[in-house]
Amino acid sequence: MSEYAGRHIEVGPEDAGKRIDVFLGEIGKAPSRSAAARLVEGGHVFVDGIPVRKRHVLAEGERITVEMPPPDGCDLVPEDIPLDIRFEDEHMIVLSKQAGLVVHPAHGNWTGTLVHALIAHCGGDLGTMQGEDRPGIVHRLDKDTTGLMMVAKSDAAQVALSEAIKIRAIDRQYVTLVHGYIAPDSGLIDAPLARDPRDRMRMAVVESPTARQAVTTFRVLERFMAGKDDDGYTLVECKLYTGRTHQIRVHMAYTHHPVVGDQTYGRRKVRADRGLTRQFLHAYRLSLDHPVTGEHLEFVDPLPADLAAVLEDVAIDSMGRTAAGEEVFAALTAG
């Protein structure tokens, strides 16, 4: 049977295979299944320390934690956090997210998020279709990933942008520096992702019923020779065809070319990481049709100072840029 230890629940064999919202409703942690689903979607339910979605299917031995929000957990208040806005009209915002900024409130980050900054900037003029704790949010970047993001200022814009992402009508491209020498100038990684069965705090490429398709394409921009403290580097442009958690970081580690500075999936060797303590991953290009006017919009975001400094540090070992590299660097310079 499932065992209870304070606010923790360890899943027993008789509950394995159930959806988490159904299970929470059955055991009285929420008054109904719909209430349980809202609790899960609000980021208050964790399995082995990781927030899950209401569709999560329980496995025997998993440890569930329910963290009820503080009394004012849903009373979002404005916070004066600087925003680097690149485009804004009455329908949407395009901004460049800085490193260290969490996108929306969740366990461990109830304040100081992008959402709090958006409320201060926009007041009540934000889309509400993702829930009351995620006003305006269309997609996310990891806390320490930088670059371009879209924000919806109305429900209609939020729905339209979310749908455009689903049908891959929005082009999002990233620049990343990875360890090692990648020989082909381009490639495709098609490898399904799910929670790592050995470490539920991480994602992994796995073959299981819970794994979701994940597709990443890449183009090599520049290669760098190996030194005494490293095995060389490759600067890569990645494009997402699916938007899974940590997708680029996991896919690159899976190919034995982890992202430089990645503290979760990387090698965590200070010298080889060139002193970088966050992943070298930057959402540098965004191309879309405006969700209301239909106008085509394109944005390029230059590398932030810490990532640019790493590239400058390894430049002496450059083996030359590819044609794709010349194209991307011209765009970054112009941007």
Can you tell me about this structure?
With 335 residues, the protein is α+β, with helices and mostly antiparallel strands. The protein is built from 7 helices and 17 strands. The strands form 3 sheets. Strands 6, 7, 8, 9, 10, 13, 14, 15, 16 and 17 form a 10-stranded mixed beta sheet that branches. Strands 1-2-5-3-4 form a 5-stranded antiparallel beta sheet. Strands 11-12 form a two-stranded antiparallel sheet. A hairpin with a 3-residue loop joins strand 6 (84-88) and strand 7. Helix 1 (20-26) packs across helix 2. It is globular and about 60 Å long. It starts with a strand and ends with a helix. The model has no long low-confidence stretch (mean pLDDT 90).
Radius of gyration (Å): 21 Å
Overall 3D geometry? Answer: globular
Biggest β-sheet, characterized?
10 strands, mixed
Structural class by sheet pairing and helices: alpha+beta
Distance between the termini: 59 Å
Work out the helix count: 7
Assign a percent range to the helix content: 10-25%
The parts where pLDDT drops under 50 for at least 5 residues are: none
Our estimate of the beta-strand percent is: 25-35%
Give the helices and strands as they follow along the chain.
EEHHEEEEEHEHEEEEEEHEEHEH
Total count of strands:
17
Mean of all residue-level pLDDT scores: 90
